[in-house]
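Honest question from a wet-lab person: if I give you the sequences of every part of a complex, can you actually get the arrangement of the whole thing, not just the pieces? Trying it with mine:
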Amino acid sequence: MSVSETPTTYSGARKGEDKSFEGVWDTPKGIHVLSSVSHRVVGRRFIYTGFVFFLIAGVLALLVRTQLIVPGNTFLDLETYNQVFTMHGTLMMFLFAIPILEGFAVYLIPLMLGARDLIFPRLGQFGYYCYLFGGIIVLSSFVFDAAPDGGWFMYVPLSTKAHTPGLSADFWLIGITFAEIASVTAAVELITAILTARAPGMSLTKMPIFAWYILITAFMIAIGFPPLIIGSILLEAERLLGLPFFDPMLGGDPLLWQHLFWLFGHPEVYIIFLPAAGMVATMLPTFVGKPLFGYGFAVAAVVSMGFISFGLWAHHMFATGLPILSLSLFSAASTMVAVPTAIQVFCFIATLASGRPKLTTPMLFILGFLSIFVLGGLTGVMLASVPFNWQAHDSYFVVAHLHYVLIGGMVFPLIGAFYYWAPHFTGRMMSERLGRWVFGLMFVGFNTTFLLMHITGLRGMPRRVATYAEGLGWDRLNMLSSIGSYILAAGIALFVFDFFRSRRHGPPAPRNPWGAGTLEWLYPPVAPGFNFHAIPPVESREPLWDQPHLLETEAHKVEGVMHGIRDGRRETVGCDPVSGKPLYILRLPHPTWLPMIAAAGLALLFGATLASAYWLCAVGAVIALVAFTLWGWEPSDSGVTRDAGMGHELPVNVVDRRSHMHVALVGTMLVLMALFASLIFGLLYLWNIRPEAAETLTRPALLPAAVAVVLGLAVALFGQLTRRAAVRDRFAGATVLSLLTVLTSLLAVAALGLSLMPIDPWASALGATLWAIGGFVAFNLAVLTYWGLFNAARRLTRRIGPGQSMPDFNLATFAKGCGLMVAVAGAFFIAGAVGGVG
Amino acid sequence: MESTLDTFGSQDTSNVAGFAAGETLWLTVLMSAAGVAIFVVVMVFIALAWRGRGGGQTWWIVGGGVIFPVVVIGTLFVTSTFVLRAIAGPSTPAHVIEVTGKQFWWDVIYDPEGRALRDANEVVLPLGEPVEIRLKSTDVIHSFWVPSIAGKMDMIPGRVNTLTVTATREGRFRGQCAEFCGLAHPLMAFEAVVLPPEEYDAFLADLDGEARDAVTPQERRGAEVFQTSGCVACHRVQGISDARIGPDLTRVGGRAALGAGMWEMNTGNLAGWIADVGDMKPGAEMPSYNQLSGPDLRALVAWLESLT
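Yes, you can. This is the full assembly:
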């Protein structure tokens, strides 16, 4: 590897900046705190914003319960009720549960793994603002009197323009899709951080269990969110442009939406449950005083849960008329998930038995979690039985079940986690005495509300009804459920009170207040704006227990790698994904406004779409594009070598498949491939379900499709050659090849477009889907082209110097994926053209 | 809003009046009992673990996490599959009824391939004879559910789903739309009436005939109002009009409920419905006929009530 020893200059550093370690890592003050990219700041913002959405959604739940307290109530009219229950589900699922858990992960993962920050801090800030702006768009629908009222599941045709005119569904589709960007970026960020930035010696098997849970969850988000994103884009295209993806009159199918929605929606449940279970697995050993029993079993269970969760989606669709064979298969798959769940529960139980558990407030919530979640799991197994499901589906039994699983499986651990980690955020302990009251109120209130709903459902009460008739045997049950909900709400209110009270009056938290074994408690709360003066080598899963010297010395005197600063830059250590051996120095960005501006540009783009102000959309897109360009417009650091301490002489970045950029790129490609696969799924589904529509489809042109396949393979080949040249430090070759890749990809887009020319996308669902596939591939190739030109410009302006091949290496990886996408799309067009259609 | 739904019979999965509901009920009871037992065992296990009995053993995880759940779900799956085959397996229905979900009512056609007898918001079933119910929708997704008779099945635009049911007990049972279908979703109910086979045949024969003739002068005036005020544009009354946009009214006076199972059928409710339907059922597509004079309205109501 050729090495240029010129110290690098960094455009992110401000003039006259304090070049001490503390100065470099300092969180900006005043209004500038909004430009902070620190995972502590961004993570806390996710958590607090998520909690605000939780409270709003909770108030909506109280409105629901108040409306249903007596039969024939007129507290809310039908329209308002429909808006209220729709927004309750929407806010809870999309804007509370996932973001708040990702917030905890963003905050805790670097601290637990021994990293100074997440690998892509700017991406974290960008994700947060996408989430915030998306959430504001969704909430603002109340102000415009256009709150979504089609249910959080947005079934078509109810949510199509014909049955939901106005903007309410558009607020949902656009706002939620925007907010989902945050989930996906955070997923890629967490995958990369967990795999490439751990303390020296922290092999995968020495990772804290929480990191395993988050790693699997992040992969599930990367694969699970794309079906809904594609579904939402298709539905918005149907509403806005009239493309008939779901229209049965034109060869579409309403069930396609349900498949895409639940392909996301079922993994979503585990995406919510797993991080919370990871919190339990982290807190429990602390209060038992012994490591998690069955770490290997738990990891295997979580991994298998991740796989199984993608095979169950149709159990939400048992009543849609699926063939008996499919019903049985999905029923069997659904019951199977009980096994990894039970393994985890018994790991927790065995852990309890292996020490002397202390009944602290977080422990109370863990016990609450165990009892409620086990019951919810059992009713889940019941619902996997098809005959029972036909009675219970869309009745209050399901309402009871899902709240047992989600409140028991996620909210109880979450409140416990607040009691456990709040000292880390605020430096003060919350009250154990009030905590017991919070738990008691929540536990009693929760069970009063939801235990009875099992019976209400079996007595025939359907979900999502704004009112019900007297005398059907539901009156008293509903009254009690409503009273229970007020008790539950009182518990939450007391928790909020305790949180704010403790911030002022709580006793200051000592170092490692609970006697935990994980690395986040190395520093006394509140730790400074940075994580580690030096990153200590890790020898076990509970370093604070097994390496006593860590707590015997003052935190800032702990020995480790990367002590101090080099070149005035924020840095952390990059490791081998498996062994945790230090491989390279990771340079991290300093505070910047660019991600926020990019997110604001996108917000303008989406907001203007809602307002049908299309010239404003263009303005927003340009703002975002400029911000993204400036974001990446910086000198490349790769190739420099620095002393990392403890005998490590490490390069800054490596051109290698183990590098953080490459791992992140592979993560991103996973998301893109899942998006692409969702479209292909739609195509094959419609093809299969509506053979008569396929017969009448105008066929794609054969020759251009064949050319596209060849060009796609050529793009992939050039990508591979570029990569090889880059790895071998043949820079001129890599540059030429990367430009060749870009050119070929432009030709490939043209070929795909020519192939689609005969097809009218408005005439049939299949035609529209083919165009959507072409459009998606074209979008990726546009990104590739822009990236290629961007790299060339950086090279011309010396931001990429000679000897720096990483940008070409990364571009090549992306090009390979794009080339394969073109080839696959072209192959499907050929299949359509030669009439393998019916 | 004073609703009188409770007079229309029960809507309870345990008040069994159909073969499928009966089979499913014992499955429900069995699974609930097993569920409660397993829950109690796990809680006892947690309590013992808390006291440190056993000290955390790998066999707990293998036994409790793998072997036990596999045995339980294996048993459940086999049992459940037997029930599924019994209630949804191949059968030879004696009758066919086509029910189409609409926002927010039910269009019913008996013997759709034969006599095609039309009715609305009421499904009559013969006791003890398997009936194939064909489920359709022309607007959004609805779901057909009479808990006492059988589980639910969705009505999806562009598709035809079938639900084969056998009623096992005479009586009136309430059904309700179980898939959220828009504004008035909670106000979309209906009645399932189980009659002995001979009465069922008589009911079909009755459906086959024209509507009853208007007898009194007031009823005759009512029929005239019906034909001159626009009602015929949407509603069918056999022998008078053949529109298919709204519910068939040939036997409207004979139904127990008004507005898709929502209101008791009586003079006051019927008059209120015609004059101000938006108040009684928000989201209904029918316009309010508040321009009708008092005597005309009363005449129309009297005539409609006579259509039994």
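Two things worth pointing out. The helical segments of chain B are 19-50, 58-88, 197-208, 217-228, 267-275, 277-280, 294-306. Residues 106 and 235 of chain B are 13 Å apart (CA to CA).
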